[in-house]
Each structure stands twice: as C-alpha cells, then as structure tokens.
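agent> step 3/5: call structure_predict on target 'Thiol reductant ABC exporter CydD subunit' (Actinomadura luteofluorescens).
agent> reason: downstream docking stage needs a structural representation; sequence fetched in step 2, passing through unchanged.
tool.input:
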Amino acid sequence: MRALDPWLPRDVPGVRRFLAAAGAAAACSAALTVAQAVLFSHIVVAGFLGGRDVRDVVPALLGFAGVGAARAALGWTSETGARTAASRMVAELRGRVLRRIVRARPGSVPTGEAVTVTTDGVEALETYVARFLPQLATAALAPPAILAWVAFRDVPSALVMAGTLPLVPLFGALIGRTTSARTRERWRALAVMSGHFLDVVTGLTTLRAHRRGRAQAAAIAATGDRYRRETMRVLRTAFLSAFVLELAATLGTALVAVGIGLRLTTGGIGLEAGLAVLVLAPELYGPLRGLAAEFHAGADGLTASRRLSALLALPPAVPAPARPRPAAFGTVRLADVTAAYDGPPVLTVTSLEIRPGELTALVGDSGAGKSTLLALLMRFAEPSSGLITVDGTDLAAFDPDEWRRLVAWLPQRPRLRPGPVLEAIAPAEPGGLSPVAAAELACAGSLVHRTVGEAGDGLSAGEVRRVALARALARPAPLLLLDEPTAHLDETTARRVTGALLTLGDRTLVVATHDPRLAASADQVIDLTGSRAGALT
Ligand SMILES: Nc1ncnc2c1ncn2[C@@H]1O[C@H](COP(=O)(O)OP(=O)(O)OP(=O)(O)O)[C@@H](O)[C@H]1O
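tool.output (status=ok):
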C-alpha cells in the first residue's frame, strides 16, 4: 500500500504545508524524547543510585519536568492543529468535488458513488489527513533520530535496533497488500448498497402501489449483508496486523533489553547510558506501532482519495470558456450537428434555424433524439461534430452557466423543490412573471396552495409537469426549451396549455412533443424520425 497518493500534495492546497508542519513537529518530538530519556537516566543514576545530594539533581529534575511539559504542549498543539487543518482542507475538497459532479454530464456519475464519496469518503479522508499523515511523519523521522543518538552512545544496541526495526514496516507492508484489496472491496460494497438503497427509497411509492415493497427487503438485506461481510474481513485483517506488529516491536525491545542486561553485568556499558537506551527502545518502535494502529484509517483514506481524485478528473460536460453570454438573444442555427452518448451518433441535424419569437416543434418517434437536441441547446452536452451558432457566434464560445441564464427548461422528468408550490415556481432571478401568473398560464392556478413532498409526492405526474412548466415560464428567459409540456395532461388541459404557449409571442419556444395539436400550432415542425441513422433534417 502506498502511504501517500501523489495527487493529494499536488492538487489539494495546504497539504504540503501540513506535511512540513507535521514533519517539524515530529522532529521536535523526537529531540524532546531523547532529552527526556537522558535526563531521566541521569536523575535515576546520580540522584538515587549514586547517592548524591538531591540539590545536585534539581536542575535535571526541572529540565525533566520542562521537557515533559513541552512534549505535552507539542502533542496537544499538533493534534488540534492537524484536526483543524484537515477539516478545512476536506471541506474545500468536498466543495470542489460537488461542483465537479454538478458540471459533469448528467448521468455520468452513479448516484451511489457520488453519495458515498462525498459523505463517508470525505470523512475517511479527513481522518487520514488528521491522524494518519502526522503519524506517518513521526514514523519517518523519530526512529532514525533516536537510532542515531543510540548509535552515538551504544553501538551494539543500535545494531540490534537497526536489525529489528525494519521488521515492523516489513510486516506492515505484507499485511498492507491484503488490506488495500479488502478496503477497496468494502468501499465498492458500500457504494452498491447506497445506490440500491437510494433507488428503493426514491421508488418506494411506486413499489408500494404495485405491492412490491416487501420483495425489496430481501435485496436490501443481501447488499447490507455483503457490506457487513466485507467490513468484518477488513476488521479481521486489522486485528491480525495489530497483533503481528505488536509482536515484532515487543521482540525488538526485549532483544535490546537482554543485550544491555548482559553487558551491564560484564561492565560493557555504563548504567546511565544503558538506562537511557532502555528507556528509548520502546520509543523507537512506538511511532511505527502508532502508524500500524492508524493503518486502516490510512487504507480507508487512500481508497477514498483515489475515488475523489477520479471524480475530480471527470471532464466537465462542456468546457467553460471565458466569453459570457451573448449580448442579446438572436437566431440559433444548427449546421451538420451530430450528438452521441459514448457510442455511435443518436442524432444528426444537417440544418436547422430557430428564429426569435417562433415556436419550433420537435417531433418524431420515441428515441428519435428530441430530448438530446434540447440537451445540446441547454449545453448539457457538446455536439460530436458540426456547429451551433447564436447570431453567427459559436455557442461553445459562451460560458455555459451564463448561456443558461437566457434559457428556461422543462425537463422530460421534472423534479420540484419540496415545499409550497409557489416557492417551487418562484424564479431565483428578478424580472420574470409572478409565480401566480406563471401558474395560471401553465394551468396550475388551482395548485398554488398545495405543497410538494419529497420527489414530487403529493402531486400527480400531470400536476408536477404543470408546476414545472409554470417554473419555466416564470423565469425571465427569452428561450424556452420544453420537453413534452402536454404529456400526462387530459385533452382539455393540454389544449389550454397549448393556447397559453401561443400567447408567449415575445419568447422563442422549442418544444419536444408527441402531441399533434401542439405540433400543428407551431411555426415550424422538425421531424427527427430516422435522424439516428443520418436521415438528415
Ligand atoms: N444518457 C444516455 N446515455 C446513452 N444513450 C442515451 C442517453 N439518453 C438518450 N440516449 C439514447 O439516445 C437516443 C435519443 O434519445 P432521446 O431521449 O433524445 O429521444 P427522444 O426523441 O426524446 O425520445 P422520447 O420521445 O421517448 O422521449 C435514444 O436511442 C436513447 O436510447
């Protein structure tokens, strides 16, 4: 297992500084540990065994207390500093990942993956940064510093230490190879479980309506059980590794102690030096044992960091160029445009002109590419080839978010913000229709006192659509892209909605529809049937 993912110091601001601070704290802590051992052995040998006057060892006693206080203060400062820095870093990272997910092509990140990575994954990374990385710095710096001092005072003990010390990281690395595979499996099981659970909760109303709710219980139990088994496997490895590493460290300390004991009886080493080395022996293995204790926090954090970096590397659905939106809304032209989703083109449009103030109806068989064309105009995706222009300027030259300020969208499967219907309709920006007027236009006037539940609960599919249409109409956008505005509506309501759309003479409408009456009212009708095979419009 690699201890540090290179993208972390490279791409996350503050990690380098954090590592440098952790390294400096570890070096100070090692120096203080050696000083404390030296003072301790001096006090014991001179004050108690040497029979000197207590006053002679007062300076050493004061020094010992001072070093102890300094170690405690350093430990406290490092820990609180690490926690604060880690939570700040991770909060920034969570924001970046969320922004990247939002900018990615819709549907390109599985929901379960997005949820687990931005919740549990980010928390695992916080533990990794706050606990594992400082421990890693201590384990890298403290043992060599202690070993160097021991070599200076007692070469045989230093040789025993140098021989046994690598056993701890060696065993750790061997166990780590198994651990990282197991941890990856555990995360995969968690993502599957989250995604499945979310799907079931979202579709609970439908499942209950068809009396299939209970059938899902077994499926949830199975995914939950898989996650439980993976977690238990990881825990088993964790306990085993802690045991093996403790054993290696204890054996090392025992060998040093036996060597010093034998040489003390033959006079091969002085009591003060022997005692200092003996006190330092557990301190030598301590940082590596501490690292082993944090090993699983490390493995979890590394897996999370890999997944986070994969999400951060997601290409945005459309790159964001510097140019803002067009100064005024004009004619939109499509020339030789094709669109594809990770495969062959699903839409080909040779030539299409969307003129200001007109109603353009997109018709055609199911799957013909109507929603795809609206997605291109929304800039949720870029054309695979060809050009879309606004008054002669390439649409790709404009900032997608700025462009979307000019566009109101009724999606094929609208989602409403839970809460009062009026709030769901109210546009975020000023200048549009009042929510009540927009609701009246969309034949949703009778719904304005109703409340939307989670996932549109409390409203029928047709009511959700009318409220979502009102939301689109309320926005002060000159271009309206409406995906099946009359779907799920009875004939009378559909006719009233069509009539209302025809009164929006100052706005440009592009409507994907299967409703012949709505299509008949349009200024131009574009039939996309066969456009997948390249039958050009
Ligand atoms: N996210 C996606 N990933 C892969 N293929 C997709 C995706 N969305 C749509 N498609 C495919 O692209 C083609 C065009 O789909 P689109 O939704 O644009 O059709 P449509 O004309 O709006 O259909 P409908 O009238 O049924 O709503 C279809 O073959 C569809 O399977």
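agent> step 4/5: record observation. The first strand starts at residue 332 and ends at 340.
agent> proceeding.
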